[in-house]
Amino acid sequence: MTNLPADAVVIGAGIAGAASAFYMASRGLNVVVCEKGRIAGEQSSRNWGFVRQQGRDPAEIPLMMEANRLWRGLERELNADLEWTAGGNMVVFRDEAERAMFGRWLDHAKAHGLDSRMVDRADIDRIATGTNFGEHGAIYTPSDGHAEPAKVTPALARAAEGRGATFLENCAVFRLIREGGRVAGVETEQGEIRAPVVVLTTGAWSSKMLSHLGLKLPQVWVTGSVGRTDPQPEFAKSAIWAGVGIRQRRDGTVNFARRSADHDLMVQSLLHGRSFRKLSRQHAGDFRIRFRKLLLDTAMGHFSDAALANELLRHRVLDPKPNMQVLEEALAELKQAIPALKAARIDRSWAGYIDMTPDLLPVIEAMDEPQGLVIATGFSGHGFGMGPIVGRLVSEIVADGRPSLDLAAFRFGRFADGTALEVGTAV
Ligand SMILES: Cc1cc2nc3c(=O)[nH]c(=O)nc-3n(C[C@H](O)[C@H](O)[C@H](O)COP(=O)(O)OP(=O)(O)OC[C@H]3O[C@@H](n4cnc5c(N)ncnc54)[C@H](O)[C@@H]3O)c2cc1C
């Protein structure tokens, strides 16, 4: 292995890990990223591509506003085409209750100077042409955008390499090496890498990885399915939520998905079930619980180092099957709402495991115990848009000793002290 020992080792090459490596390498740090499978193999290439400030928990709004600023310059900074489209984000209301809920959220947006606003039927027609969206109006944030997930994380990784970072694929980290109260590096399937800082950006695997350090992160997996149509006439530059999430790509194809998702029962569901009671009550209609082989297949990794190593090698890239029934129903609904799509067919479909925390907020923190461990995980279905700012904040924590934005809401300790049990105003 080259460039070893490193200033920092990053575990996981999703968007959080690749962006952390990019911004750390930009600060002159010698960074090695270990990825058990391939760059962006899991959530970071499988998501809808929404980059939104709209509807965020108030604690996330300042981060997302800064992320939005970074996104606007990212293609230039990375010298790459990311299909960044500054077309806004629109949520079409299904009823008056939803309108009222977003009305309350708008107070937070205004307090931060965000350009979100309520829009009426005529505005909706300008934002998305030829649609039959309902009569209850919508909320629209013109400064929001979207990008192509399959391009963004690989571009961050390439740019990070250009600034001296090393990415090791097929390189699972089995455990963190600790000396005294500090981390001293990682033990990987390709050997040991010594470093005074370890950044843990392991997405859906974080709860298991941390349990081996005696840290209890309540986190469950939820499967989200996504469909893509054949190319269609252009109808909107905005990303849209109207009961179905919709994003028309540059080549005319339309990505679509429902928020409702399948929860495959796992050991984590049982270990952390209590912490998720409130969330599951609030979103009861959105989740279907399923019993799958995964329950047995990933049962022991929480408890034994050897079993975890085995699981990491067996699941190089998590690749759940999409729920085709949900996607076919979603496309039928879309055809009703957007008659121009009446001949659209599903060309591609895929799914990804989303990692959820009980309050739907991430953990971004430099731990006191063990020192040198920085955690950035638990993005709960909306970490793609946050990716660039997360990377920059991690680089500040490592290079400057503190972040430039307030991260108090994203403390790891909130799960133990009870402050995390309120689900925020995220809508
Ligand atoms: C269907 C779907 C739709 C979504 N839509 C949106 C959206 O529109 N907008 C938005 O902002 N977000 C969205 N998200 C969420 C977003 O994709 C995630 O929050 C984000 O990608 C998380 O990035 P990450 O880097 O934390 O995790 P991941 O992308 O999951 O990366 C973690 C990486 O760590 C690796 N790893 C784990 N353990 C180890 C180990 N021990 N050793 C080495 N490597 C390891 C994994 O292999 C993986 O590659 C969606 C997610 C899904 C699945």
TrEMBL record:
GO cellular component, one term: cytoplasm
Gene Ontology BP term (one): D-alanine catabolic process
Keyword list, A-Z: Oxidoreductase
Pfam families to which the protein is assigned, alphabetical: DAO
Parts of the chain that traverse the membrane: none
Span of domain FAD dependent oxidoreductase: 7-396
Keyword Cell division applies: no
Single GO MF annotation: D-amino-acid dehydrogenase activity
Family membership noted in the UniProt record: Belongs to the DadA oxidoreductase family.
Protein's recorded name: FAD-dependent oxidoreductase
Species, as recorded: Minwuia thermotolerans
